[in-house]
Design brief:
663 residues, alpha+beta, Amidase signature (AS) enzymes, 2 domains, 12-stranded mixed beta sheet, 10-stranded mixed beta sheet, 22 strands, binds 2-acetamido-2-deoxy-beta-D-glucopyranose, AS_sf
Amino acid sequence: MVSQRGAMSARSVGLSILSLVSCFTLPAASAQLTSNGLSVTLNHVYYFISPFSSGRVLVKPTAFSAVPQVFGFKPVTVVQGAIAQEALPSLFANWTAIDDVFQPAFAQAIFLSGSGPWLTKRKIDTRDLSTILSINDTSIPSGPYFLEMATGSLYPVYRLYEDFAGAFLEPLIPTPDGKFQVLSAQIPGSASLTVGVPSRLYFTKTAAKPLAGVRLGVKDIYRLAGMKGSNGNRAWYNLYPASEKTGPAVQALIDAGAQVIGLQKTSQFANGESATADWVDYHAPFNPRGDGYQDPSSSSSGAGASIASYEWLDIAIGSDTGGSIRGPSGVQGLFGNRPSHGLVSLDNVMPLSPTLDTPGFLIRDPYLWDVANTALYGGNYKSLAKTQVKYPTKIRTLYFPDNPESNAAATIITNFANALAAFVEGTIEPLDLETSWNASTPVEAAGTPLEEFLETTYATLITKEQTSLVRDPFYADYAAIHDGRRPFVNPVPLLRWGYGDTLSEADYEAAKRNKTVFMDWFNSEILPPVDNPAQCSSGFVLYLGSQGGGNPRNRYGSAPGVPVGFNPGRISVFAEVPDSVFPLGQVSLRSEISNHDEFFPVAVDIMAAKGCDGLLVKLAQDLVEAGIVTPPLAGGTVTGGDILMKRRAEEKGVKEVRYVEYS
Ligand SMILES: *[C@@H]1O[C@H](CO)[C@@H](O)[C@H](O)[C@H]1NC(C)=O
Ligand SMILES: *[C@@H]1O[C@H](CO)[C@@H](O)[C@H](O)[C@H]1NC(C)=O
Ligand SMILES: *[C@@H]1O[C@H](CO)[C@@H](O)[C@H](O)[C@H]1NC(C)=O
Ligand SMILES: *[C@@H]1O[C@H](CO)[C@@H](O)[C@H](O)[C@H]1NC(C)=O
């Protein structure tokens, strides 16, 4: 998209190196002065001017005299493609509706492609006469820019937003060499970071770039070229240099046109942590739903909190080893997928357990979900969006409520199962995994009951794999430059790694074997695939996701423990089957924090046979079309609305509290 990129000239930031140096008799020293971009305000909207130019136009430094200027920059608009001048007002009205970055104030100075050169003055909006010049570099995309008057360089515009949910580790902008650098901007707001989003107008969706302009948050375990990463650990962030290379998973999304806007917080080393006690190195993101003080779940916490909070963010890539996408999706009322295992390389991603790790999305829009999955998983994902599917009719439920009237969440979940059954013209049957296991126990399990067979499997795999792949090299590298010291590690990963040290290689081999035995059993006895691609899976297995609030972050929790035991959330972990969260609605519960009734998300998890990831997304789309599922919105509830802590006092006429001296 960008040609003739270059850093802003020193002149543009109002400094003259030569005159400074000549005042003193100093030894000749080189001064490398680089612009990190500029932060400006246009009609009360915060913008960031990229330091990397998109190209140049021919313009007199005195042009557009009526347009305001800061540091030699003026807001302008580029319009490419054949369009009549008369149609510009309609075009700009459309742009304002689809893009949160563009505003009419950019359109006082317009560069219009076509047969120039010509100079016109036209009434584009009701207030001002716009000046129109011609542009003949078609490589500069349409949209708002800041024009450096002295050079004619056009710089892309980012709108700045506050990260009030504390979801980001570091916001970023792309650099011309295909890498990233930290966004250098700060606006007022909750004493939190500032995130920049590029204009949506710069990007055009094509077959090769189906994610063009889609704004993406990336969990801070995926390494990005030019950026440091932390894995949720401050010692790690400081110890290691910025990455050379973006890993293939995120690169696939970038190649499809996605715009990475920042690294997002993970609980430490992608282990399960509870807000607030376990998050020692960094503070846990804020779940915006309900009273705003429910645990955001982990480990893809920044991903979930941001997609639930920010309309200006489209998708977030997280990872799921033991529930790290499903947990945050559920408690924040989002779609989220733990995919079939092994769909895409996780090179340059910090592992928890390669045997179990999976990359997936947290998202509000089930249509974008399909496009993003296609870009991420490539040929290993079969999109069924445009296919006439034949849904499996066998629906089985795990631990669903016996009495649908027992509480509001039970009613929502039961109604959903019934609606799903009616939709696929199928039947619902409770699944008793233990009875099925007893009836067809694999010979390798030698009669061991299911829960005993899998009791320590997860804990063994994650702790043995992460200690050797992550902890050991980290400790060695840290000790080498810190006189033998050990880095600080949060209580949860520290305890888990310690557990790993008590295990033998034989325990590890047993865990791998048990996992495989269960997988083979589940994928043949319970949820086998079918040969018909329009159906893919022999059935759906449902289990309970979020059932409303009740996990406030201001609790004094108990000490962390080893994640032993078996539960429905472990099935997909071991069996490698896709397991997606569908947001179903919300329940009203009394909040002890706000002393008021608040709405909290309710969600269900749906599994299909291994490799049937596309079927679950198609199901989400069809259930939305049938009115059975409603796509969630960003906001204080799944149907949108103010986020409690963000309600503006000024708008309600609240005045400043003034303190007077007590006498
Ligand atoms: C258009 O492009 C040509 C050749 O690149 C250049 O000479 C000319 O000045 C350009 N005109 C304008 C108005 O930018
Ligand atoms: C603006 O959008 C409307 C409705 O989609 C469309 O009819 C119209 O042609 C658009 N205007 C321009 C200039 O693209
Ligand atoms: C499964 O078998 C074990 C013994 O191997 C038994 O203790 C357990 O009660 C059985 N469970 C069910 C649900 O039949
Ligand atoms: C594996 O299964 C055996 C029973 O066959 C059990 O004794 C052992 O604890 C299991 N180990 C792990 C790590 O899963």
